């Protein structure tokens, strides 16, 4: 069960094999998804929302990302692990970006990093790839820029915005990125970008013409009740299962149905008899 590498990911596009990616934030889930056969695990900064209780990805720190990436790497043996670079860990200077990207490979066992943005981050991407750090780009709806974008909405809808996205994708490829995530992009535009680039595109809310797909594992499993974006498919509704299980547990503890004899440890009668 050999580890998938970045060359194998690029090769999949050449062979027309669809690439699968899911987020993971801890060792337990990483092991489950890895054993199920997913190609890439993304330690997304979406962990701000899914795991840490923030309402955006902006507060997530390098230390948060390193901590969760280490856990994911302990659970994954086959899938390629990609770590998201958090907000403001790569924007200040190329030097700081390079140093932070390097920490993921040095200190966690991740095989690659991901960062958001196009042309403006191309020099940082170039420095990272020159240093031997594989990079995944991220275009379209980039949640770290939510305040700049003015909310979570589909990107690249008019000619100027569509052309900008195409140019950004080209500049990431030229800078050495080995894949690009396209988030919330009209399907025909994402298809066109996928046909234009040699490196694979990984879509989320970007239609079926991308070279691969990624979703947040909490969305796939229906772990969180509430709002579900149009592009999400919840393959299960586990939050109802979790609630039902916990309610049953509370009820059985209160009514002394749990623990039963089968969950308890016995003691020889004479031990009890000699106790005073
Ligand atoms: O943080 C994340 O989960 C992501 C994916 C949605 C691509 O960046
Ligand atoms: Na992210």
Automatic annotation (TrEMBL):
<comment type="similarity">
    <text>Belongs to the PanB family.</text>
</comment>
<dbReference type="GO" id="GO:0003864">
    <property type="term" value="F:3-methyl-2-oxobutanoate hydroxymethyltransferase activity"/>
</dbReference>
<feature type="binding site">
    <location>
        <position position="116"/>
    </location>
    <ligand>
        <name>Mg(2+)</name>
    </ligand>
</feature>
<protein>
    <recommendedName>
        <fullName>3-methyl-2-oxobutanoate hydroxymethyltransferase</fullName>
        <ecNumber>2.1.2.11</ecNumber>
    </recommendedName>
</protein>
<keyword id="KW-0808">Transferase</keyword>
<keyword id="KW-0479">Metal-binding</keyword>
<keyword id="KW-0566">Pantothenate biosynthesis</keyword>
<feature type="binding site">
    <location>
        <begin position="45"/>
        <end position="46"/>
    </location>
    <ligand>
        <name>3-methyl-2-oxobutanoate</name>
    </ligand>
</feature>
<dbReference type="GO" id="GO:0032259">
    <property type="term" value="P:methylation"/>
</dbReference>
<keyword id="KW-0489">Methyltransferase</keyword>
<dbReference type="InterPro" id="IPR040442">
    <property type="entry name" value="Pyrv_kinase-like_dom_sf"/>
</dbReference>
<dbReference type="GO" id="GO:0005737">
    <property type="term" value="C:cytoplasm"/>
</dbReference>
<feature type="binding site">
    <location>
        <position position="45"/>
    </location>
    <ligand>
        <name>Mg(2+)</name>
    </ligand>
</feature>
<comment type="function">
    <text>Catalyzes the reversible reaction in which hydroxymethyl group from 5,10-methylenetetrahydrofolate is transferred onto alpha-ketoisovalerate to form ketopantoate.</text>
</comment>
<comment type="pathway">
    <text>Cofactor biosynthesis; (R)-pantothenate biosynthesis; (R)-pantoate from 3-methyl-2-oxobutanoate: step 1/2.</text>
</comment>
<dbReference type="Pfam" id="PF02548">
    <property type="entry name" value="Pantoate_transf"/>
</dbReference>
<comment type="subunit">
    <text>Homodecamer; pentamer of dimers.</text>
</comment>
<keyword id="KW-0460">Magnesium</keyword>
<dbReference type="GO" id="GO:0008168">
    <property type="term" value="F:methyltransferase activity"/>
</dbReference>
<dbReference type="InterPro" id="IPR015813">
    <property type="entry name" value="Pyrv/PenolPyrv_kinase-like_dom"/>
</dbReference>
<keyword id="KW-0963">Cytoplasm</keyword>
<feature type="active site" description="Proton acceptor">
    <location>
        <position position="183"/>
    </location>
</feature>
<feature type="binding site">
    <location>
        <position position="84"/>
    </location>
    <ligand>
        <name>Mg(2+)</name>
    </ligand>
</feature>
<feature type="binding site">
    <location>
        <position position="114"/>
    </location>
    <ligand>
        <name>3-methyl-2-oxobutanoate</name>
    </ligand>
</feature>
<dbReference type="GO" id="GO:0000287">
    <property type="term" value="F:magnesium ion binding"/>
</dbReference>
<dbReference type="GO" id="GO:0015940">
    <property type="term" value="P:pantothenate biosynthetic process"/>
</dbReference>
<feature type="binding site">
    <location>
        <position position="84"/>
    </location>
    <ligand>
        <name>3-methyl-2-oxobutanoate</name>
    </ligand>
</feature>
<dbReference type="InterPro" id="IPR003700">
    <property type="entry name" value="Pantoate_hydroxy_MeTrfase"/>
</dbReference>
């Amino acid at each position: 069960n050999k580890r998938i590498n970045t060359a194998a990911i690029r090769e999949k596009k050449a062979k027309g094999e669809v690439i699968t990616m899911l987020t993971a934030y801890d060792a337990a889930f990483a092991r489950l998804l890895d054993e199920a056969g997913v190609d890439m695990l993304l330690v997304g900064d979406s962990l701000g929302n899914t795991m840490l209780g923030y309402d955006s990805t902006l507060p997530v720190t390098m230390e948060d990302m390193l901590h969760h990436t280490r856990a994911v790497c302990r659970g994954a043996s086959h899938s390629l692990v990609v770590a998201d670079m958090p907000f403001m860990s790569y924007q200040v200077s190329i030097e700081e970006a390079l140093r932070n990207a390097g920490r993921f490979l040095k200190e966690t066992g991740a095989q690659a990093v991901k960062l958001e943005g196009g042309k403006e981050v191309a020099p940082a991407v170039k420095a990272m790839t020159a240093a031997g750090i594989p990079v995944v780009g991220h275009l379209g709806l980039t949640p770290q820029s939510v305040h700049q974008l003015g909310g979570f909405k589909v990107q690249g809808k008019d000619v100027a915005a569509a052309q900008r996205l195409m140019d950004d994708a080209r500049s990431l490829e030229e800078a050495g990125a080995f894949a690009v995530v396209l988030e919330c992009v009209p399907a025909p535009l994402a298809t066109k970008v996928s046909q234009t680039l040699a490196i694979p595109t990984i879509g989320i809310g970007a239609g079926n013409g991308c070279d691969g797909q990624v979703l947040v594992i909490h969305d796939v499993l229906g772990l969180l009740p509430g709002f579900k974006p149009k592009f999400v498919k919840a393959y299960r509704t586990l939050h109802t299962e979790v609630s039902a299980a916990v309610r049953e547990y509370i009820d059985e503890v209160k009514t002394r149905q749990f623990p039963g004899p089968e969950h308890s440890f016995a003691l020889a009668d004479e031990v009890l008899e000699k106790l005073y």
